UniProtKB/TrEMBL annotation:
Residues 1-24 form the signal peptide. The keyword DNA-binding does not apply. It holds the Pfam family Peptidase_M24. InterPro entries: Creatinase/aminopeptidase-like, Pept_M24, Peptidase_M24B. Keywords: Aminopeptidase, Hydrolase, Protease, Signal. This is Xaa-Pro aminopeptidase. PANTHER family: AMINOPEPTIDASE, CYTOPLASMIC PEPTIDASE PEPQ-RELATED. It comes from Sphingobium boeckii. The keyword Hydrolase applies. Residues 190-422 form the Peptidase M24 domain. GO terms for molecular function: aminopeptidase activity.
Length: 439
């Protein structure tokens, strides 16, 4: 008995020992990928966006306990008191990179910076380079470009002195361009994030997770969160939003509703993998006894959403502003019989028409990203030009009557992520193409 017990301990210990290198290998693999993403971003994107925006020097300031939203993309690292990432365009070739007061073991294992001066040398450093325009992270709309606190702004002004302080300007457009133009390594990571996202949500909306009459929407949401934990991923929006679209009134969100036969369910969520964030939706119908598909009216409503999605894809091309692209698709929708432009969650009373709301926004650097955005809720980003390598979440809502469920219009949301190329918008993973079925 004792020998069998010892043998069991030895086998368990061997299994644990064998598992550790695999885990370490995955961590190192992801670290190497992230390091390459940062290198490519600095080498290929940063020179382009600094010169387009006329910024000679970009200063990203932060302190311990108050990191700038761009810190992870810029290399992370530990800040003991005050830290600065400073990028200087000297007129040709690569951008000079300096990290003031930033370090740490991980930071040093991905060498990105040419110089590591002391924060006390800030004024001397800047004076020697004599930049005409110094970009800082203050912004009127884009949060990722608004990381400079008021006290750090005052300190930066004082440390630079009045002459250099007069050259400070908002880096809002620079930050948006830097975050929203992507290298091949970023596109690969974004596609991988999309695969994680769709695989987990499509498993969640199946009999692997859902037992009709027993499983709640909240239990489905927490199962999805557990998959993020197991895969070492982050979430784009916290707990997934899971709600019932019909046959009754919509709701509740990720709560205690017991999923029943006849329910039409949607999930809105996203994941974070290697600084790439997704935003997507999936829909499922819970079959009643004797059914092999959703009611015809539900399928018709879903198909009308797919029609609008194709209209969006038809107008997206690089070289136009996001606002112009949205105007073009809105015009196409308004000219199509049976469709009208509507208001979010406030459809018209006419049962013969389908109301359409389009909010195709930037994505990738966050679930709602920093770049060009075909959405009225991003007015500044509507003015930005669509460029190759921008990521977009193609999001839309249609409201249409399902005759089997009465006269109320049912909301059908669609959302998936893609990358803009010279050919238009291309998906980075297989998009939503059907209503999933739960038995």
């Amino acid at each position: 008995m004792k020998s069998r017990l010892i043998r069991s301990w030895v086998i368990a210990l061997m299994a644990l020992t064998m598992a550790q290198p695999a885990s370490a290998q995955e961590a190192k693999r992801r670290w190497d990928q992230l390091c390459q993403i940062r290198k490519d971003k600095f080498d290929l994107v940063l020179p382009q966006v600094m010169r387009e925006n006329g910024i000679d020097m970009w200063i990203v300031a932060m302190r311990e306990g108050h990191s700038d939203p761009n810190a992870e993309m810029l290399g992370g690292g530990y800040v003991g008191d005050i830290g600065y990432y400073i990028f200087t365009d000297k007129g040709a070739g690569r951008i000079e990179r300096a990290a003031f007061g930033i370090g740490g073991a991980g930071f040093d294992q991905c060498p990105l910076y040419d110089l590591k001066p002391s924060p006390d040398d800030l004024r001397k450093f800047v004076e020697a380079r004599n930049p005409k325009r110094i970009g800082i992270n203050v912004a009127r709309e884009i949060g990722t470009a608004d990381g400079l606190s008021h006290s750090l702004y005052e300190k930066l002004n004082a440390d630079l002195g009045p002459d250099l302080a007069q050259r400070l300007t908002s880096a809002e457009k620079l930050v948006s361009d830097f975050r929203s133009r992507h290298t091949a390594t970023e596109i690969a990571a974004f596609a991988r994030a999309g695969e994680y996202s769709r695989t987990i949500v499509e498993r969640a909306l199946s009999n692997e997770v859902i037992t009709p009459g027993h499983t709640t929407t909240g239990q489905v949401a927490w199962w999805m969160m557990e998959q993020l934990h197991k895969e070492g991923l982050g979430g784009a929006f916290g707990l997934p939003s899971i709600y019932i679209l019909g046959p009754g009134e919509r709701g509740p969100v990720s709560g205690d509703h017991v999923i029943q036969p006849g329910d039409l369910i949607t999930v809105d969520w996203g994941v974070n993998y290697l600084l790439s964030y997704t935003d997507m939706k999936r829909m499922a119908y819970v079959l009643k006894a004797g059914e092999n598909g959703p009611p015809a009216g539900v399928q018709r409503a879903y198909d009308r959403g797919q029609t609008v999605r194709q209209m969006i894809l038809d107008v997206i091309r690089p070289g136009v502003t996001a606002g112009a692209a949205l105007a073009a698709v809105n015009q196409r929708v308004a000219a199509t019989p049976g469709f009208v432009l509507g208001k979010y969650d406030d459809p018209s009373k006419d049962p013969k028409v389908t109301d359409v709301v389009i909010g195709s926004h930037s994505v990738g650097d966050y679930g709602h990203g920093s770049g060009p955005s075909m959405a009225d809720f991003n007015p500044l980003r509507m003015t930005y030009e669509l460029r190759p390598s921008n990521f977009l979440s193609i999001e839309l809502f249609v409201y249409t009557v399902v005759p089997e469920w009465g006269s109320r219009k049912i909301k059908i949301p669609l959302e998936d992520d893609g990358v803009i190329t010279e050919r238009g918008l291309e998906w980075v993973y297989p998009p939503n193409s059907r209503i999933l079925l739960v038995k």
